[in-house]
Automatic annotation (TrEMBL):
Pfam families: AAA_16. This is AAA family ATPase. PANTHER family: TESTICULAR SOLUBLE ADENYLYL CYCLASE, TRANSCRIPTIONAL ACTIVATOR DOMAIN. One of its GO terms (cellular component) is cytoplasm. GO terms for molecular function: adenylate cyclase activity; ATP binding.
Length: 898
C-alpha cells in the first residue's frame, strides 16, 4: 500500500477507502440510469471513529455532484427512546418545503396516517396501527422519490436509531426493488439493544454484502501524518502514531491535531509523547481537557450532552442556569477546543439545534463524565425545560425515563400523557416504556389499575400475550369501575381469544358477569360470552348453549348494540348448525339499522371488536346472501386501509374478501386476496387464528382451481395440520385437509381425516356447506363401501334440505348423482344444475354442468360447463371438461369427480 493520499476535497478519514468509494459510485450511477432503476442498500459497519461519518459525507458530495437529491439523518445515543426521530429527520425537510396542500396531495390517503408520525399533522382520535404507520411512511418516501429522483437517503449511527425508525427501515429495505432510491446506512457492530440489533440485522440482510470498515494500515497512517504535519515527519514517529491509535482514523486525526496544537516536532525523539497526547483526546483525557476550560464551559457541555439533540444556546443556557451572553462565550470556547461545533448549514435537518458535538465519541465521553446524581437531576430539569418550551409531554418523556422514581403523581400523569401522544402516532412500544416508567413511580392506589389498563390497551394490536398480563393485573386491583372495568374484561377476553385461549376468554367474561346484576353491562358480557362460545368448534354442550342463546335473542328487538350483537350471534349459530337459512338471514337483517351497521358497530370501533361483524358477514355468505356479505367485506377492507390498520385486521379483511370471491366462484381473485392476507399476516405472527382461517380458505380455493400441488405446498409452509386451533374455522379445517389428502394421493389418510371431521361435527356443526366432510367421504368410500357412501349422501341431502339454500341443495343432489348411474344419475344432475344455476356460487354451478354433460353425453352441456369453468379460473375443471369432449364424452369414474 502506498502513501498516496485521497482527493484534495476528501476527508483524511477516506484514506484506504477506494473499494468502498467504488461501490458507492457504482450504486449512484446505477440509480441515475433511469427513473425505473431498482433501488439498492449499502451498509457500512465498523467501530467508533473508523470513518463511517466521513464516508457518508463523501456519499453526499458524490451524489450531489451527479445531480442527486440527498436526505440525511443520524441516530443519537441519548434519544433512542424518541419514536420516529430518525425518519422525521429524513423526511421533514422535504415535506415542510411544500405548501400544505402539496403535502396532502403527495401523501394522499396516507397523510392522516403517516403525517402525525412525521410531525406534520395532528393525530386523530383513533389508536394508530403501527404497521399502518410504517406502510404510510414507505408510501411517503416512494411518492416523494418520484418527485425528487434520483434520491439518496443517508442514515448515520443507525445503531442508535429509534426502534420505530428501524421497523420502517427494515420494511422499506424489502421494498427497494420496487423503488428508485439509494439508501446508505452506517452503524457500529455493537451498541444496539437486542430489539434494535435484530432490526439492524434484518436491514443488513437485504443489502449488498455489508462492508466492515478496517483500520488504517501503517503505510496509510504515515501518509496521513505527513500530509498533516509535513513531509519531514520521520518513519519512527509515523509508526508510533499508528501504534498509539491502532489505525483508527478519528483518533489519528485528533492526535495529529494535538501534535499541531502542541507544536511537537514529528521526529523519533518526540514519539514518546504521543501516548500522553492521545489520552487527552479521548476518555478521561478528554474530560480533563474539558474541565481545564473551566466550570462554566463544563456545565455548558454537560447540558448539551443531556439534550443530545436540538442543542440550542438558549435551551442549554436555561438548563445550565447561565445568562445568554455567558452561554454564547462557552459555546465559542468549546468550539475552539473541538468539542462542540456549529451545525453544518448545508446538511442541517429540521429539529437540529445551533450546535452539535464534533463526534459521537466526544458526546458519549462528556455524557458519561457527568456524575450520576447530577446527570439524573439534569434530566429532571431538562424535562421541565422541554415542557416549558411547548414541545409536549412526549418530548419530555425521554428525560423523565432517566429520572429516579420519587412517588410523584405529576410524573405519572406526564408519562400517561406522553403514552397517549405516542399511541396517537403509532408508537406503542414508546407508549409502553412511558407507562412502565409510570408504574415505577409508583402511581397512587386509585390510579395504579388505570395505568395497567392503559398498558394493556397499548399492546392490544401488537402483543396479545402482553395485553393479557397487564389486564389481568389491572382487574385484580381496586380502581377499575363501571364501564372501564367491563371494557377491560372484554379486551382481556379478546386478547385471550387472539392468543388461542378460547376457554379462558369465556371464563373471564363469565366471572365478571356473575358479579353484576341485570343491566346494560351484564347484557354486553352475556353477548360476549355467546360470541366466544359461538367460535368454539368442540363445545360438548352446544345444544344447551344454542337454546340459551335462542331464548336471549327472542327478547331482542335490536334497540341497542348488545341486542344487535345477540341477534348476529343467533344468526351465526343457526348457520353453523345448518338450521333454516331464511331464519339465519332474518336474524342478521334485524341486527342492522336501515340495512347498515349501527353506530358503534363499525369495523374500526373497539367496543365490540371485529368478531361480531365477521360472524354477520359469514352468516350471510353461507346463506347465499353474497351481496350483503361482499358489501360488508368490502367495507372492512376500505375501513382498515383508510384508517391505516395494516396488521391483523387488514389481513382478516383480505381473507374474508377472498372468501366472498370463493363463494362467488371468482377463484383467481379469491387466491390473490388470500395470498395477500397471508403476506400481511406474516408480519403479525404465525399460529394465530387468523392464520388458520386464511390458510384453510387458500388451500380450499387452490383445490377448486385444480392446483393440488400448490395447495399441498401452502399447507406444508403454513403448518395446516393437527393440532387444530381452539376457535372455529370456516370452512371446516379437517374437511379441507381431508380433501387435500385425497387430492394428493394420500387416500387412507384423507379418509381418516374426514372421519375425524365427522366425529367433531357430531357436537352440532352440521351445515353441509361449511362442514364438507360428508360429500368427500361419500365419494371416497363409493367403491369399497357403497352402503356407507349412500348413508352419508342421504344425511348430506337431509341437512341441505333443512338449511334450504340453492347451493346446499344443488351440492347434495350432485353428490347423490355421483353415486348413481344411467337415467337416475342424469335426472339428479339436472336437478342439481337447476338449483346451482339459481345460487350465487358459479364454481359449484360449473362443476355440476360439466358432470351433467358427461353423464348425459351432451356436448352442449359440456360447453356450457367449460365456459363457466374458464370464467371461474377452475383450471382442473376446464381440463376435465376438455378431456371429456376430446374423448367423445366417455363416462368417468365416480372417484375421478370433484
Amino acid at each position: 500500500m502506498t502513501e498516496e493520499r485521497p482527493g484534495a476535497a476528501a476527508s483524511p478519514s477516506l484514506w484506504e477507502r477506494e473499494v468502498e468509494l467504488a461501490a458507492i459510485e457504482e450504486a449512484i450511477d446505477a440509480l441515475r440510469e433511469d427513473r425505473a432503476s431498482r433501488g439498492s442498500l449499502l451498509v457500512f459497519k465498523g467501530e467508533a471513529g473508523i470513518g463511517k461519518t466521513a464516508l457518508l459525507a463523501e456519499v453526499r458530495r458524490l451524489a450531489e455532484e451527479r445531480g442527486c437529491t440527498v436526505w440525511s439523518a443520524r441516530g443519537g445515543e441519548t434519544v433512542t427512546s424518541v419514536p420516529f426521530n430518525v425518519v422525521r429527520q429524513l423526511l421533514q425537510p422535504a415535506l415542510l418545503s411544500l405548501m400544505p396542500d402539496e403535502t396532502r396531495e403527495y401523501l394522499g390517503d396516507w397523510y392522516d396516517i403517516a403525517g402525525p408520525a412525521l410531525g406534520i399533522a395532528v393525530p386523530g382520535d383513533r389508536l394508530a396501527d403501527p404497521q399502518g404507520v410504517c406502510d404510510g411512511l414507505i408510501a411517503a418516501v416512494s411518492r416523494l422519490a418520484r418527485r425528487d429522483w434520483p434520491l439518496v437517503l443517508l442514515i448515520d449511527d443507525a445503531h442508535w436509531a429509534d426502534q420505530e425508525t428501524l421497523h420502517w427501515l427494515a420494511a422499506f429495505a424489502e421494498r427497494l426493488g420496487e423503488l428508485s432510491v439509494l439508501v446508505v446506512v452506517a452503524r457500529r457492530a455493537a451498541d444496539a439493544t437486542k430489539e434494535r440489533a435484530g432490526l439492524l440485522d434484518a436491514v443488513a440482510a437485504t443489502a449488498r454484502p455489508t462492508t466492515t470498515l478496517s483500520a488504517l494500515t501503517p503505510e496509510a497512517t504515515a501518509g496521513l501524518t505527513r500530509a498533516t504535519l509535513g513531509e519531514h515527519a520521520d518513519a519512527p514517529f509515523c509508526r508510533e502514531v499508528w501504534a498509539v491509535t491502532g489505525g483508527n482514523p478519528y483518533e489519528t486525526v485528533e492526535l495529529l491535531a494535538k501534535v499541531q496544537d502542541s507544536q511537537l516536532e514529528p521526529v523519533e525523539s518526540s514519539a514518546a509523547e504521543l501516548r500522553a497526547l492521545n489520552r487527552s483526546a479521548r476518555g478521561r483525557g478528554l474530560v480533563a481537557r474539558l474541565e481545564g476550560l473551566g466550570i462554566e464551559a463544563t456545565r455548558f457541555a454537560w447540558a448539551a450532552a443531556i439534550l443530545g439533540t436540538g442543542i440550542t444556546v438558549e435551551l442549554v443556557a436555561t438548563l445550565a442556569t447561565m445568562r445568554p451572553e455567558k452561554a454564547m462565550r462557552c459555546a465559542h470556547l468549546l468550539s475552539a477546543a473541538r468539542i462542540l461545533t456549529e451545525t453544518d448549514r448545508a446538511t442541517r435537518q429540521v429539529g437540529d439545534g445551533d450546535l452539535e458535538f464534533v463526534h459521537p465519541l466526544i458526546a458519549t465521553a462528556v455524557y458519561n463524565a457527568i456524575p450520576p446524581a447530577t446527570r439524573t437531576a439534569m434530566h429532571g430539569v431538562a424535562a421541565e425545560v422541554v415542557t416549558a418550551s411547548g414541545l409536549g409531554a412526549a418530548a419530555a418523556s425521554r428525560h423523565l425515563l432517566k429520572v429516579h422514581p420519587d412517588d410523584d403523581p405529576e410524573v405519572v400523569e406526564q408519562m400517561r400523557e406522553a403514552a397517549r401522544e405516542h399511541l396517537a402516532i403509532g408508537a406503542p412500544d414508546a407508549a409502553c416504556r412511558c407507562l412502565e416508567r409510570a408504574l415505577l413511580e409508583p402511581p397512587a392506589p386509585g390510579v395504579h389499575a388505570q395505568v395497567l389498563y392503559e398498558l394493556g390497551c397499548a399492546t392490544l394490536l401488537t402483543s396479545p400475550a402482553t395485553t393479557i398480563d397487564y389486564l389481568q393485573s389491572a382487574l385484580a386491583m381496586p380502581g377499575l369501575v363501571g364501564g372501564t372495568r367491563v371494557d377491560a374484561v372484554v379486551r382481556l377476553s379478546q386478547a385471550l381469544l387472539h392468543n388461542d385461549q378460547l376457554e379462558d376468554a369465556v371464563r373471564t367474561v363469565d366471572a365478571e358477569a356473575a358479579r353484576l346484576g341485570p343491566g346494560p353491562a351484564h347484557l354486553r358480557l352475556r353477548a360476549v360470552h355467546h360470541m366466544w362460545q359461538g367460535l368454539n368448534p368442540g363445545e360438548e354442550h352446544l345444544p344447551g348453549r344454542s337454546e340459551e342463546l335462542a331464548a336471549l335473542a327472542a327478547t331482542c328487538t335490536g334497540r341497542n348494540n348488545s341486542e344487535r350483537v345477540l341477534l348476529i350471534l343467533r344468526g351465526f349459530d343457526l348457520m353453523t348448525r345448518g338450521d333454516n337459512a331464511e331464519e339465519v338471514v332474518e336474524h342478521c337483517d334485524r341486527a342492522l339499522v336501515d340495512g347498515r351497521l349501527a353506530p358503534g358497530l363499525g369495523w374500526t370501533d373497539t367496543e365490540w371488536g371485529i368478531e361480531p361483524l365477521l360472524m354477520l358477514a359469514t352468516a350471510y355468505a353461507y346463506a347465499d346472501r353474497l351481496d350483503q356479505a361482499e358489501s360488508l367485506y368490502t367495507q372492512a377492507l376500505c375501513a382498515y386501509e383508510s384508517a391505516g390498520w395494516s396488521g391483523g385486521h387488514l389481513a382478516l379483511a383480505h381473507a374474508y374478501v377472498g372468501l366472498g370471491h370463493r363463494r362467488r366462484g371468482r377463484l383467481k381473485d379469491a387466491e390473490a386476496s388470500l395470498r395477500e392476507s397471508l403476506r400481511i399476516a406474516e408480519r403479525v405472527g404465525r399460529g394465530l387464528p387468523l392464520y388458520w382461517s386464511t390458510t384453510c380458505n387458500l388451500v380450499e380455493t387452490l383445490l377448486a382451481r385444480g392446483h393440488a400441488d400448490e395447495a399441498r405446498e401452502i399447507a406444508e409452509r403454513y403448518g395446516f395440520a393437527p393440532p387444530y386451533p381452539s376457535t372455529i374455522v370456516l370452512p371446516d379445517a379437517r374437511s379441507v385437509r381431508g380433501r387435500l389428502l385425497l387430492a394428493t394421493g394420500r387416500r387412507d389418510e384423507g379418509i381418516n381425516e374426514l372421519e375425524a371431521a365427522e366425529k367433531a361435527a357430531a357436537r352440532g356443526h352440521h351445515n353441509p356447506v361449511t362442514a364438507l366432510w360428508g360429500s368427500d367421504l361419500a365419494r371416497a368410500l363409493a367403491h369399497e363401501d357403497p352402503r356407507r357412501a349412500a348413508e352419508l349422501a342421504l344425511a348430506v341431502r337431509r341437512r341441505a334440505e333443512r338449511f334450504g339454500t340453492d347451493t346446499a341443495l344443488g351440492e347434495a343432489l350432485r353428490l347423490a348423482a355421483a353415486l348413481e348411474t344411467g337415467q337416475r344419475a342424469t335426472a339428479l344432475y339436472a336437478r342439481a344444475v337447476t338449483h346451482l344455476e339459481a345460487s350465487p356460487c358459479a364454481y359449484e354451478h360449473a362443476t355440476a354442468r360439466v358432470e351433467y354433460g358427461i353423464a348425459l353425453r351432451s356436448a352442449a352441456e359440456l360447453h356450457k360447463g367449460l365456459t363457466l369453468a374458464r370464467s371461474c379460473g377452475a383450471d382442473g375443471l376446464v381440463d376435465r371438461a376438455q378431456r371429456a369432449l376430446d374423448e367423445g364424452l366417455g363416462q368417468t369414474r365416480v372417484d375421478d369427480r370433484t
